[in-house]
Design brief:
This protein is an alpha/beta fold. The chain is about 35% helix and about 15% strand. The strands form three sheets. It has an eight-stranded mixed sheet with strand order 4-3-5-1-6-9-2-10, with helices on both faces. A hairpin with a 5-residue loop joins β7 and β8.
Length: about 450
């Protein structure tokens, strides 16, 4: 009987496939990942199931599409009625360890379920769970709100929560967008994870183990460590000091973001180069004959394609076509079409679980090929958006339901809110510039 392999699963959040040099990007953004890909499997046609973090990760953790697992909102818990990937592996005898610097892939949304150890900077046992408080509070304005906060603070202090640390955590949560998304520079936690694994590897990683990491370095705001910042590309000094631009504000306030895209892209690439160094060090630390090393993403990023930025509102290729590299299961380039759901079932197979995928999914290690790719987008976080923008703006820019199917090189996209339909032939038009919906009614149908 084959020994169960250790499984290392790395998500590089917001990483586009076409910005890795092993996928043909002309800049050498990923020499370490390139080396791992050369020694392993590189999947050329690998897709997410959505265009942003929560539904994509939920598909990876459950093996189901967003419409099935129903974890699609910025406040919805990982479906408690479904066994998650770490739970399945834990039941199989795996030591399960998780690290995440993503506020969504955290204990707050129950993505920690099934892990023996799960570390994220947004949750500690000895401080107040402010998100739970915010959901349940009665007063949202005026002095009554602050009286309620103080009362809750002192109640929690009696239960052993740290008073000052809880206040600090509450302020960080309240002003996360201002202090983190606008002004934070350098490493976003990858170095801390690497150092912890190096220091405590023998204690943490009892074989067989499943190690899951979500790296946020490639996700905006793009503020790589200074030695990776492209100083030599004639960027004005203010660009290194100015607040990171809020993409949504450019949509809804009519600001001209696109003149800054040429300045942003080198920083995005620099972030890739930095996380590539971290992954190279991690790979050297963990590689062994009995370890499977998996590198992928949850979605991509837009830099002006179809007049859009960021990574929500659409299901275009730059958002849903993501990298997948697997070391330890052979060598070669795989042209078959697969998705994050199929990666779930591939890992289940690696771990020796006898569980059959649903009808629409296949193990990435099987002889089958997915007949079609299916992706979905639902409203991201209605309560947050309505707090930030007028309802008319939320409806116009955010509150859409979009689905896409890719089959036989044709890609069909339908916005169920606006009723708009799009059709592209990806073989000739991979950048989706030529909508053929009016010229090919029979294919559209």
């Amino acid at each position: 009987m084959r020994k169960r392999p250790n499984i290392v699963l790395i998500i590089i959040d917001a990483l586009r496939q076409d910005h890795l040099s092993c996928y043909g990007y002309p800049k050498k953004t990923s020499p370490n990942i390139d080396k791992i890909a050369k020694e392993g499997l590189l999947f050329e046609n690998f897709y997410s199931t959505s265009c942003w973090t929560v539904p994509s990760h939920a598909s990876l953790f459950t093996g189901l599409y967003p419409t099935e697992h129903q974890t699609n909102d910025g406040e919805s818990l990982l479906n408690p009625n479904l066994l998650s990937l770490p739970e399945k592996l834990k039941n199989q005898g795996y030591t399960t360890i998780g690290f995440s610097d993503n506020p969504y892939i955290s204990k707050f949304l129950d993505f920690s379920r099934g892990f023996d150890l799960f570390e994220d900077p947004f949750f500690r046992e000895d401080i107040i769970d402010w998100r739970t408080f915010v959901k349940k509070r009665k007063h949202k304005k005026g002095i009554a709100k602050y009286i309620e906060i103080l009362k809750y603070l002192f109640e929690q202090k009696k239960e052993g929560k740290k008073f000052l640390s809880s206040i600090k955590a509450g302020l960080q949560l309240k002003f996360f967008e201002f202090f983190e998304a606008k002004f934070k520079r350098g490493d976003k936690g990858a170095k801390r994870v690497l150092q912890k694994i190096k220091k405590e590897k023998s204690k943490l990683l009892k074989e067989p183990y499943f190690l899951f990491i979500n790296f946020m370095e490639v996700h905006g705001p793009y503020r790589p460590p200074l030695r990776y910042s492209p100083f030599l590309l004639n960027h004005p000094f203010w660009f290194f000091l100015a607040p990171y631009p809020n993409a949504w504000d450019y949509y809804v306030k009519g600001k001209d973001f696109f003149k800054e895209i040429d300045q942003l892209l080198p920083f995005y690439d620099a972030e890739i180069r930095y996380i590539d160094k971290i992954i190279g060090d991690l790979f050297e630390e963990l590689k062994s004959k009995n370890t499977i090393f998996i590198i992928t993403s949850d979605h991509g990023e837009k830099f002006g394609e179809k007049g859009q930025i960021n990574h929500i509102y659409s299901l275009d290729e730059v958002l849903i076509k993501i990298p997948l590299i697997i070391w330890g299961c052979g060598k070669g380039r795989i042209k078959k079409f697969f998705q994050l759901t199929d990666l779930h079932w591939g890992i289940v197979e690696l771990a020796g679980l006898k569980e059959n995928p649903p009808w629409h999914s296949f193990s990435i290690f099987g002889n089958f090929e997915k007949p079609s790719v299916f992706c979905e987008y639902f409203l991201w976080n209605e309560r947050y958006l309505r707090k930030k923008y007028p309802l008319s703006i939320v409806k116009k820019y955010f509150d859409h339901q979009i689905k896409a199917i890719i089959k036989d090189q044709w890609k069909y996209i339908k916005n169920f809110t606006t009723k708009k339909e799009e059709l592209y032939f990806l073989k000739d038009d991979p950048q989706e510039k030529n909508d053929l919906s009016s010229k090919n009614p029979e294919v559209l149908e």
